[in-house]
Amino acid sequence: MPDTNPIQVDQPQVSTIVNIPAANKDDQLTLTVQIQLTADDWIYRPSHQVFLDANDIYPAGSPDPAKLDLGTGSDLDGRQLSVKSKVALIYEPGGFAGAPPVYKYSISLDTGAAGIAVFEVESGPNNPTRFNSLILFKQL
Known about the structure:
Order of helices and strands: EEEEEEHEEEE
Helix content: under 10%
Largest sheet: 6 strands, mixed
Strand content: over 45%
Number of strands: 10
Number of domains: 1
Number of helices: 1
Radius of gyration: 16 Å
């Protein structure tokens, strides 16, 4: 059974369990955040916060997290990962007077060799849009 999607759009975080297979207990897990725009002439300005058990593990002002080391599967058992992203869309040519387009936001957890989980949502009507995830890791 797949894990429940932990990403909340413009809503508070909800604690969600993500299972780590027993085969990955010694593997290094990484986090990647991706934003996929669906319209030309738009750019995005992200702001991300990543906390592992309330410890800030991602520098403010950095680009989208890519292959951010979290620890081994067994090290992550029982720990919480909080990912908060704020994404603002900007119309590059200027002067656009309509609603910004919908885009995709995803977080993935993997070992480099194998995917553990990928979660994806579409943006909401607000600009900027806030994406909030709270993951509790469980080693199987």
